[in-house]
Design a protein that fits this description.
The structure is a homotetramer. By secondary structure, chain A is of the alpha/beta class. In chain A, about 40% of the residues lie in helices and about 15% in strands. The model of chain A has no long low-confidence stretch (mean pLDDT about 95). Chains A and B meet through helix 1, helix 3, helix 5 and helix 9 of A and helix 1, helix 3, helix 5 and helix 9 of B. Chains A, B, C, D: Its cofactor is pyridoxal 5'-phosphate. Chains A, B, C, D: Keywords: Pyridoxal phosphate.
Chain lengths: ~350, ~350, ~350, ~350
């Protein structure tokens, strides 16, 4: 029973099959191959964005940091949630790739920025003069680090504020598929149609081995991006193997099916928590559940070998409770979910 | 008939099989898994270097730039051959990762640094004061960008000069397997036993999909390296998939067999060139052949669909000749080699 | 009546005289001159730190960012107060100079870090693994951005926590002279004797034209620092002109006299505020006063041409009040102080 | 007798007087003062460039590196002469400020780039694809590091090639005044009128204490430049003291007079060398003389306390000769020049 992360799990068989399928023969290296071209085209279709520039890299940190360094200068201010992955979990990658940009972190319930907080922060940044650096970009995560999902309208509202200030909006979509599946909107509706300018579309947590797409909906924003990718060591010589993974996910809606499966497993976990008298720290909207359970129950789960992160740790509001994060993948075994729910129910 | 590069070809079946073999179940992410631990251990054995710190990344540019940024400060001078991959083909990655280090390029026949040239350059650097930056490291490539191979003694001689100046020696081993196979020495004899401090052991060109090992033989040199790797987006969340590739290559001497196969194909190509009255620009010692042939023959080859790079272009010494680089992989078809030789023979 | 900043004022006549005094003749450039050697020696004496490595630069931002990049790697976490100048007012210089380090900002009354908050933050950073980067340094400002002054004991307590975690302590001393003058302790007691490892000793706000000293009390920490200074363009070719300014300040205790004069003027302003029924937002301890006055009084002051910053803006706790920052220099005219106090008194 | 460098000498009395003249009273910090505004305006007039954006910094390395980082991305290729100051004497500042740009160094007689060499190099860079980075800028130095001076026509020819490739032209004018004085053309004719896009106009070697101007003739190129300057610690809080120096130089043609004086002294030195049977390595055109004299004469000069650099060292073409660089300033004493010439004449 491993609920530690969706990236604890392997790749979908279709992804592995795609690697083998494209393995034969010699092709031009560094992305000048047919698989890469096809994968880019398919993703542009999936996003209904024929003009978009789209590139594949292997990690989410690379995707985010490359995208941000493309839209923010070294002296830029990038607004994000205080729990954003780019702030808490990328070891300073945005600062390094951009050669100095600052992340300006903002509070917000359940991992979400609010229009009011964002607007106030942007205004404050505008008054900084040289001292505080220059407003450069806004970054949101969807699904968020708390497993919640911005609605189409919520993204639109943040985008409106961002654009009004003349800034681009970046979306860290490490779990974009889970967000799309959760909201029942299209990928386009969840991104460029409501103002997302740069999208990191996650493949790894969705069922790839190691693959993400960086998307710039306005090609002008991608100017020089290939050089950045190369200079940071993120162009594969056998680039087809990155593309093939993403192509497999895009085929026949696999990406959305896998996300829906992961979300459904999390939904069952959330029900189990509630049924057992536990509580949710935030609403369960994608493939992560943030639950609060008694510490004894936690010890029982540990003893049974259940793996998850305590998050936040310590648990806000009480010594006899623990907060835990449960994350599901498309292939988290149903029986693991059921066993854990049963364990919770036993109290 | 594609002789453009060894990275034009796919992965060895054993590599792909290894991906599938490690796919099942959930493991801890970011390298805290058993496959990664085992692959690191196996490579330390292969290198007879039980103390070494060893990490896997996906690209050669990442491996080199990370290794160099680890051993050179922003104000460092890194000595290398003027045709070194780090100078000509990595889009400024060493400069970017190190935040400013300078590559000081040196001439040398057949892609090799000579002890005299290196010693003189280091001395010159020592006299620079603040103006020129501080001597930081020496980097060599083996097999070189010209397909030649430093002997054990040659590496030892360069290492002696490097160490006498108090500097570490980096070896770009994108084709280290080909070098080892060519010289018939061990990987240890070709690296730390003669003074290599940081080795980038290439897997991709050897038959992996996308995998390289960065090795620091003195663990003290690796201090903080994991953070650099993370900050630059080169830690995979599903790190086992990087490790599994390298593990497959290391098993049963596969890496050396594949390199020997590639080298043998290149040897046949070189014979074909000479038999047809062409000449070699440098001795053929690994899996690359630098040949000079009449321009008519080149046109004929083009017409027949043979793919290779003109290198150098234009060809030194004559308008009616072209210089071409032919690179073989372990799986370059024998019949392609034969057909091309036959084509050359027809004149 | 200009109370906007101590750097709104010019240089002390002794500083200007020192420039002229060292102007004649030719000396070796880039700091290899007698004035520089003497100024470094005098400052080591002033600090009772014969081993210290000491270098002069022209701006406080350069001093801080160079010092921090010397002690923190690109993936480092630097702990500081949320109102620290390095966070709010240096346009991302620490991030740029270090090529990626993160400032981890902490709350604290009156611009001061508390031992408890710092210890908790350091512990939290230690548990980050690769995700959050590595604990690298702690930075405090004395006098603080709120004009308050850490006592010798307070610095010692923060240093103890910092060192216990194996980290170095940086002190942004843009107004170090004011702090020393305020506490009546020696410069040594306020720095290395209680654990400061890297000190930026401000000259500009103290009466120089543009000069600061960066001090590393352990010479080993300064290794390579001269290269950083050069690479960032902060070595003057006519370096004597930087040194001469600092030498003038160090002579006959001028630095301390000037700081005491500035502090005394601020004390009188604070009295004026209180006498007029205004309040202080934090205790007045150096040459800055943070006052709260009715908005009408503010309008009157504006009308009278008094210059200061609204800080913080908006004023916490009430629409009919404004918060203002009043900063004095050694040469803020007494009559300006008196006139402003009189203006306040009129209500 | 010190001919080591023009920056071995102090500042012109008018420069020092200007510091004192602007010292009184309080002004807004960070460049929002009247002296700065006036100095910028005067320099725009001097350059006949009313649209230009012009900023003052304290060092030539800062000026060059800031200008280059403004016009070249991290993955940029910057073409320059192999003896360019930015390559040999700035400790990697261009690489650091740009976060990775590469200097592509080119040969050329007497410190000058030729149109043919530059055009070929740019073409070669264009064919690099991602590997070699992207062509970003061309940088020339005038007067050159060999004391020679590009003519108006020579600059125009290089600018034409640069612009044809869509690149901006940077001019390192640490000794721009000497170049202008040498050619008898105007500053405009030597810069923007023949295609210079970014000019670093040196004040320090011309008689300032520490001041340079960075000029962007097209304001669009200066976009965000103030932030770069701030982030790198090159905005003085008491910015008027930078501006005042430059203003003094610009007044009444002082800059040109001083340069002419320095050039004239060098001319006399060159005559002395030739009269004594020595030879010039390159024509004397500004305030530097590169001479070749017998080693015995060199020893005699050393014994007499004459200070200069051996340059290049060792001297090309003969063990019994030394090459030396003699640099004069506006205030190199006439008698020193005469004494040295006499010393040479004695043989």
């Amino acid at each position: 029973m491993n609920f530690s992360s969706d990236n604890a799990w392997g790749a979908h068989p279709a992804v592995l099959a795609a690697l083998t399928a494209c393995n034969d023969g010699a092709v031009m290296a560094y992305g000048a191959d047919a698989v890469t071209a096809r994968a880019e085209a398919v993703f542009r279709e999936l996003l209904q964005a024929p003009q978009a520039v789209l590139r594949f890299v292997a990690t989410g940190t690379a995707a985010n940091a490359l995208a941000l360094s493309q839209i923010a200068p070294p002296y830029g201010r990038i607004y994000c949630h205080e729990d954003a992955h780019i702030e808490t979990s990328e070891c300073g990658a945005p600062e390094f790739f951009s050669a100095g940009a600052k992340l300006i972190t903002l509070p917000g319930d359940a991992g979400k920025l609010t229009p009011e907080t964002l607007a106030a922060a942007i205004r404050s940044g505008e008054s900084e003069g040289l001292n505080g650096g220059r407003n450069a970009a806004v970054s949101i995560t969807n699904a968020t680090e708390w497993g919640t999902v911005y609605s189409v309208g919520e993204v639109a509202a943040l985008a409106a504020i961002t654009h009004k200030a003349g800034l681009p909006l970046h979306l860290d979509g490490a779990r974009f598929a889970n967000a799309v599946a959760s909201r029942g909107a299209s990928a386009a509706q969840m991104s460029w149609q409501v103002g997302v300018d740069a999208l990191c579309f996650g493949g790894t947590k969705n069922g790839a081995m190691a693959a993400e797409a960086v998307v710039f909906f306005d090609p002008a924003r991608a100017e020089g991006f290939d050089y950045r990718r190369k200079q940071s060591g993120h162009v594969f010589s056998k680039q087809r193997f990155l593309a093939a993974q993403m192509l497999a996910l895009a085929s026949d809606g696999l990406w959305l099916d896998l996300a829906a499966q992961a979300n459904a497993r999390a939904a069952r976990l959330a029900e189990g928590v509630l049924a057992a008298g536990g509580s949710l720290m935030v609403p369960r909207q994608s493939n992560a559940v943030f639950a609060r359970i008694p510490v004894e129950l936690h010890r029982k789960a540990q003893a049974a070998g259940v793996i998850y992160h305590l998050w936040p740790d310590p648990c806000p509001g009480g010594d006899d409770m623990v907060a835990l994060r449960l994350v599901t993948a498309w292939n988290t075994p149903d029986e693991d979910v059921l066993r854990f729910c049963a364990l919770l129910a036993q109290g």
